[in-house]
Known about the structure:
Chain A has helices at 72-86, 98-109, 140-147, 157-160, 167-184, 218-227, 243-246, 248-260; strands at residues 4-11, 14-21, 25-30, 50-55, 92-96, 116-120, 205-210, 232-236. With 264 residues, chain A is of the alpha/beta class. In chain A, a hairpin with a 2-residue loop joins strand 1 and strand 2 (14-21). Chain A is globular, with a radius of gyration of 17 Å. The two termini of chain A are 29 Å apart. Chain B has 14 helices and eleven strands. The radius of gyration of chain B is 20 Å and the shape is globular. The chains are: A alpha/beta (264), B alpha/beta (388). The interface between A and B is medium-sized, with 13 and 15 residues.
Amino acid sequence: MPAxxxxxxxxxxxxxxxxxxxxxxxxxxxxxxxxxxxxxxxLDGLASEFEIHLPTHPGFGHSGRHRGLETIHDLVDFxxxxxxxxxxxxxxxxxxxxxxxxxxxxxxxxxxxxxxLVLAAAxxxxxxxxxxxxxxxxxxxxxxxxxxxxxxxxxxxxRFCPENPTEEENIxxxxxxxxxxxxxxxxxxxxPKLPYxxxxxxxxxxxxxxxxxxxIPLAHxxxxxxGIAGAQLKxxxxxxxxxxxxxxxEFSSMVTDFLKSSRG
Amino acid sequence: xxxxxYFTEMPYPEAPELDKYPAIRLTYPNRYFNPEVGVRIYxxxxxxxxxxxxxxxxxxxxxEHHNTPTCLDVSCNLSASAITQRTRKCKILLLGNTxxxxxxxxxxxxxxxMLDLFSNxxxxxxxxxxxxVEHWATNLSPVVNRERFEESHDLIVRTWTxxxxxxxxxxHFQFRYVNPWLFPLQKPHPPIWVPGIGSEETxxxxxxxxxxxxxxxxxxxxxxxxxxxxxxxxxxSGYATQPHHLGYTMGCFVGDDQKAVERSYEHVMFRMRMxxxxxxxxxxxxxxxxxxxxxxxxxxxxxxxxxxMSIDELREAGGFIVGTPEVVTERLYYVIKRLGIGHLIMEGxxxxxxxELAMRSIELLGTQVLPALRKEFGPSEASxxxxx
Lengths: 264, 388
């Protein structure tokens, strides 16, 4: 298991939690609406070539948040500060679900600063006829079914939703859901103006989707691939909304191949 | 001194095939609605409100919910408006407007002012946070409910009391010209009441403002805890809690004899068992209240829910009372004494209870139960000050 450190960094008025591991070129991972699951096995194979940064977004988990942080655009501004702070040289950026939306917005804001982009089961678009499931209304068992093709086969399920959470874990996950609701209640999980900004993403982009994603249907993956010039879409069979957790080996090698390829 | 209110949510009389669906609210399909039934039951419900005044209630109460057969009152201002034209002297309690969910608090201030003028000063303007499911019905994040509730309240009160024009540049609401032509009749403004089912912040907020706090459908044991919290906060705010600061809402049905009483059972049980059918998020969504409140709903409940109780258990616990006039009088006497309340709100029509039974129940309450209770507790304040 590669060495990693957990730290807190303060950028202006916001102090967030940051997990760091691996050595090499910079890679930033944006977690989704349920908060930062920490270091998962799919990252192991990347740690020898990348210095991987796993920030917990403001307001999520144990990260702070000032009152002005209320929209995805506010988070984009925060991550512009984040990029400035670390002086990253065109880092790779991977985002999951709501984090994928955030990654796409950031890449559209400053395309020259992002080396490569991976959007996994990304929220952010509205696709007529393929609504995003109402995750904020779902019960715990329903969430399992919405998130995975086969919850029982998921090895790291406990990291995603611990069976007997501590009070501290409960508070952190409730904070995450509250922040996700602040960001994405209405319009629900998308930005109606984003399609008009997608042309700005000139970063080489990989779109990864679980074929059986019941939270954000595959039609969204196709819409991203169509909207971002040159983007390639890879679909994983027998896989739901969290390919990095449900199919870690497949997902990891897909991402590794893309990040190591000469494009970009 | 206690005053008595009659209340109905104006339920649709049936919820066909409810067993096929996970919830009675939000997504239960509206294809089961028949507008002709709507025409009939709205008329019946208005008759019941008018009858309640006639037989001796001090006031009537209206509320609102959305996307549910349990409540056809989708605008308490609209139903109150009709009631102002069907009654002459009773108080009309709106409990109330979900001010966090309104986009335009100034318009709301105008509407309630209009109602106060329509009714010659009989409006009690309740402000409610709403139950969780309304956030889906109106697509507003529950996370901002409290902030919007408080800001909307501040703006409405200022609109009622401060000469315009003035501007409001708040976090959630912005108006460059607040200057509605009409004011309420009552000065400084119609009384403001606040209902609750346990949110501690709401109780403290109501107590800090000195607003009457009405416990909705909770066992007496929980109501006592909530009232204690109110009293503590009131003490800190520099005043002593009086009965008129505390209200209690419960279901109530009176029949002439045991046979009539038993005819209500199936409707009572539907009200208690089915009208709350749905996931916990419909009632306590993440982010609407503090963690201390939300954890009460997540399995570690300190109190048994009255929505699981039998008729006998309900009578003991205090959520619902069904019986002959003698039984109901005795029990309501106990409830009022034990809780020290000044307002008792009785929901008397539920889930398809036949109209004639509801009317008879209202009559028995007004002509037998309330007079007996008034003998003990004195004439009510509301009836004494009503302007006709």
